[in-house]
Specification:
Strand content: 15-25%
Largest sheet: 6 strands, parallel
Structural class: alpha/beta
CATH class of the largest domain: Alpha Beta
Strand order of the largest sheet: 6-11-10-9-8-7
Number of strands: 13
Number of domains: 2
CATH architecture of the largest domain: Alpha-Beta Barrel
CATH superfamily of the largest domain: Aldolase class I
Helix content: 40-55%
Oligomer: single chain
Radius of gyration: 23 Å
């Protein structure tokens, strides 16, 4: 992970929250007071983001120490103490909300990803994320998918070509779109084509492509598409996939399933921060 970028995200989040100063904490807590507090899981889930919350508090108090009580990616039960932060009381109180916002969201993503990965045990099919991420938080959300056992799709528009219906319409045809893109990007960049009918799959297979996204197909059509492709290119199913349908879709033989809601509609894992010692002067 690009930790320079992560630190920038943390600084922007802290600047947004603190503004001209933490009025409440600055009024109540004298400088020099130190405390320790526990991060507690209030529901079962997969923990992701421990290295990130460490950086939150170090940004406010370089002498702060985060002791991890579980491993990154570990599944925990309700009530589990997952980490202890020790340091400036002011820094702990001021950084609390940003730290919780990040670890709650990242752990929520890791939790649902792990659940989906388990549903596909025994199959070669991977669980993929998409670019449907929170603006500014993509690096953290895609990291959380990996912690949960999933696989990252492209990080951005520069990390691969995906030809969708609007691109094809602009080019005039799928074959023309592939021709123009291949000339532009060269042989080192992979090209994926979106197809939502078997006829489009047949056309795509005649072109210089690397992957086909089978979009919003029912299970029977997916099976036929996979048979048509017969391993010639990498396959991905997407569109309308739910935890209830993901196994059946994966059993069609596709190489991966991609789910935008892994990141854009995830429910944060409930995690709290409770002080365990009284404030004391240094």
């Amino acid at each position: 992970m690009n930790w320079i970028q992560v630190k920038r995200i943390i600084r922007e989040a802290l600047n947004e929250d603190i503004g001209a100063g933490d009025l409440t904490t600055d009024a109540l807590v004298p400088e020099g007071h130190r405390s320790s507090a526990l991060f507690l899981a209030k529901q079962p889930g997969v923990i992701a983001g421990l290295p990130v919350i460490r950086l939150v508090f170090q940004e406010l108090d370089p002498a702060s120490e985060l002791t991890c009580l579980v491993q990154e990616g570990e599944e925990v039960e309700k009530g589990t103490a997952i980490a202890r932060i020790t340091g400036s009381t002011r820094a702990i109180l001021t950084g609390e909300r940003v730290a919780l916002n990040l670890i709650q969201r990242m752990s929520g993503i890791a939790t649902i990803t792990r659940q989906l990965v388990k549903k596909l045990e025994g199959l070669h099919c991977r669980v993929l994320d998409t670019r449907k991420t929170t603006p500014g938080l993509r690096i953290l959300e895609k990291y959380a998918v990996r912690v949960g056992g999933g696989t990252n799709h492209r990080f951005g528009l520069s990390h691969g070509v995906m030809l969708k219906d609007n691109h094809i319409a602009m080019a005039g045809s799928l074959s023309r779109a592939v021709e123009l893109v291949r000339k532009h990007v060269g042989h080192m960049v992979q090209i994926e084509v979106e197809a939502d009918t078997l006829e489009q799959v047949k056309e795509a297979l005649t072109l210089d492509i690397d992957a086909i996204l089978l979009d919003n197909m029912d299970v029977e059509t997916l099976k036929q598409a996979v048979q048509l492709i017969n391993g010639k290119v990498w396959t991905e199913a997407s569109g309308g996939i739910t935890p209830e349908t993901v196994r059946e879709i994966a059993e069609t033989g596709v190489d991966a399933v991609s789910l935008g809601w892994l990141t854009h509609s995830v429910k944060a894992l409930d995690i709290g921060l409770d002080f365990e010692t009284e404030m004391r002067d240094t």
